[in-house]
């Protein structure tokens, strides 16, 4: 198996066509077809099949595609590690950010990287935490912002911030509370719009409710941040979440966030890297910058409801 075969296969999947992949790769189509056949013969499995939509990966092909991407990325990182300068880091760095954090961190970080390290290409991936963990383990991303649930021992972990969860409603909502804070029991009186249990936020909220002898009587399960926002703006209920995913609406005055006075609901946000795959100089530079940007956002209160752990 050759690296060029991996590159060829990834290009075919990405472009959905042998002819388009051949043009991008600057090789003739028969040669591309031959290399694909050799790869399938070596693996003794069909990786692609033709359809009305073009060339699509089979189930085996989808699995192989993820591994091929990870291998090609690590090869590229290895080349960068031995050629780049520590003073002028260059190359591509892939950083994973959960959906519930990207609203606060993604844009300030992109701007900081472009200003301080213009020769670094930062690739941001917004995913659920579980997906980011798998991508970090396989080497498909260099770094990931995750939530410390005590299950991250396989990674090199750097604490960033403690993020408080708040009671959030539409401005002038029927479920709004008039005070400057709200008790947890009062918060449970409204229909609560919450992420599903595959999100780390939900089990933490449910666990605190049980320990306080409370229960949620009316829950609307929504896993999409965009749809959750729409439901809040339609005044279908309230939510208990960190502020980050709803920060734009809160800053505009479309939503209101209140701290919960009698219980602390928070999560620890950390920056993780693989213990087994070395970081390039560029990745080290981005790692340091992520921590700096997070600390600045926390100190300036632009990332509401947070306290620094650095």
UniProtKB/TrEMBL annotation:
Upper lineage:
Bacteria, Pseudomonadati, Pseudomonadota, Betaproteobacteria, Burkholderiales
Instruction: Please give the organism.
Output: Sapientia aquatica
Keywords associated with the record? Activator, DNA-binding, Transcription, Transcription regulation
Any keyword Transcription? yes
Gene3D superfamilies attached here?
A: 3.40.190.290, Winged helix-like DNA-binding domain superfamily/Winged helix DNA-binding domain (1.10.10.10)
Q: List, alphabetically, the PROSITE patterns matched.
A: HTH_LYSR (PS50931)
- Offer one example of a GO biological process linked to this entry: regulation of DNA-templated transcription initiation
What's this protein's name? LysR family transcriptional regulator
Family to which this protein belongs: Belongs to the LysR transcriptional regulatory family.
Q: Could you tell me the superkingdom of the organism this chain comes from? A: Bacteria
Any idea which GO molecular function terms this record carries?
Answer: DNA binding; DNA-binding transcription factor activity
Q: Where is the HTH lysR-type domain?
A: 1-58
């Amino acid at each position: 198996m050759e690296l060029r075969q991996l590159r060829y296969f990834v290009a075919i999947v990405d472009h959905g066509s042998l002819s388009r992949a051949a043009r991008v790769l600057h090789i003739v189509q028969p040669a591309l077809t031959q290399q694909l056949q050799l790869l399938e013969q070596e693996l003794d499995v069909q990786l692609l099949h033709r359809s009305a939509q073009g060339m699509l990966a089979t189930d085996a092909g989808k699995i192989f595609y993820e591994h091929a991407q990870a291998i090609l990325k690590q090869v590229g990182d290895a080349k960068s590690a031995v050629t780049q300068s520590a003073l002028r880091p260059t190359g591509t760095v892939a950083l994973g950010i959960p959906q519930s954090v990207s609203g606060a961190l993604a844009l300030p970080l992109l701007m900081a990287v472009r200003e301080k390290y213009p020769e670094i290409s930062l690739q941001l991936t917004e995913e659920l935490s579980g997906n980011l963990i798998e991508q970090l383990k396989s080497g498909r991303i260099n770094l990931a912002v995750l939530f410390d649930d005590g299950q991250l021992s396989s990674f090199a972990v750097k604490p960033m911030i403690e993020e408080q969860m708040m009671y959030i409603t539409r401005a002038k909502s029927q479920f709004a509370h008039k005070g400057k804070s709200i008790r947890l029991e009062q918060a449970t009186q409204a229909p609560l719009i919450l992420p599903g249990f595959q999100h780390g936020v939900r089990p933490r909220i449910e666990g605190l409710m049980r320990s306080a002898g409370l229960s949620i009587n009316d829950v609307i399960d929504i896993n999409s941040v965009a749809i959750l926002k729409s439901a809040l703006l339609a005044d279908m209920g309230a939510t208990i979440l960190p502020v980050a995913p709803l920060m734009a609406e809160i800053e505009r005055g479309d939503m209101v966030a209140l701290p919960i006075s009698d219980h602390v609901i928070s999560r620890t946000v950390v920056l993780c890297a693989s213990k087994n795959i070395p970081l390039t100089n560029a990745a080290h530079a981005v790692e340091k910058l992520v921590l700096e940007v997070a600390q600045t956002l926390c100190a300036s209160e632009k990332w509401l409801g947070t306290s620094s752990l650095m």
